[in-house]
Specification:
Layout (H helix, E strand, L loop, with lengths): L8 H7 L13 E3 L8 E3 L4 H9 L7 E5 L9 E13 L16 E3 L4 H11 L14 E5 L5 E11 L2 E9 L8 H15 L3 E6 L5 H8 L2 E13 L2
Parallel strand pairs: 8-9
Antiparallel strand pairs: 1-2, 3-10, 4-9, 4-10, 5-6, 6-7, 7-8
């Protein structure tokens, strides 16, 4: 039985989705530009694919991979990190969880780039680079003083699916339901486009309970593998 595209989401995003135009690499390996997303992908975990992967990696830089299992790299590679991550999808959302803050969400664009980077630095949602906002649609919530207090956006996009990412709230604004409001809006909009929203969350992240309440269900446990060519 063939694997589902979501078992290898970065590969399918960089070869079959709109991000294929952004992809670096060739043959059995692809990379996002690092200032967009620090992730790479393999068609399959074979020695020849790893050779393709190494060809376009800057010296001393690890390849960060989403893989369906904890796979050992071939000889000549070093394991830097290996962590399981939960992949959750939503075929529907919990409409009863709608939050009044949804009314106050605003679209974020190039003029908001500095504020988005500052929020990512404060809230630590995971990798967020100077061109991450170019990967998809981002929404945010600003406080009465205009400060960006919360945001969320779209990252990996593959046929029929879109990943929600960078869901974060400033420490000063937590407990107000802003993360739920952003996740619901983006998920609802994806479903309206006939796209299935999905996201990734590490097992120790307490936000997984919120995502489950909003209608996301665990589809699989993938592995985030950091593999680096040996010096």
């Amino acid at each position: 039985m063939g694997r589902h595209a979501l078992d290898n989401p970065v590969w399918h995003a960089l070869t079959a989705g709109p991000h294929a135009a952004l992809a670096l690499g060739s043959d059995a390996a692809r990379h996002y530009p690092r200032d967009m997303a620090p992730f790479s992908a393999l068609a399959e975990a074979t020695p020849s694919a790893y050779a393709d992967l190494a060809r376009d990696l800057p010296p001393g830089i690890e390849a960060r991979l989403f893989r369906p299992a904890e796979e050992a790299p071939p000889p000549g590679w070093v394991v830097v990190s290996a962590r399981p991550i939960r992949q959750m999808v939503a075929a529907a959302v919990n409409l009863a969880a709608a939050h009044p803050a949804e009314r106050d969400l605003v679209a974020l664009g190039p003029a908001d780039a500095a504020d988005m980077l500052a929020l990512a630095d404060a809230a630590k949602p995971g990798p967020f680079g100077t061109r991450t906002p170019d990967l998809g649609r981002f929404l945010g919530h600003r406080g009465p003083d205009g400060r960006l207090l919360a945001m969320a956006g779209e990252r990996f996009r593959l046929p029929g699916h879109v990943e929600l990412s960078a869901i974060c709230v400033h420490p000063d604004a937590r407990g107000q339901g802003l993360g739920a409001a952003l996740t619901l809006r983006l998920a609802r909009d994806a479903l309206a486009r006939s796209e299935v929203p999905f996201l990734h969350v590490f097992p120790d992240n307490l936000a997984a309970a919120l995502y489950a309440y909003l209608g996301f269900r665990e589809r699989a446990v993938l592995w985030v593998l950091w593999h680096r060519p040996a010096a």
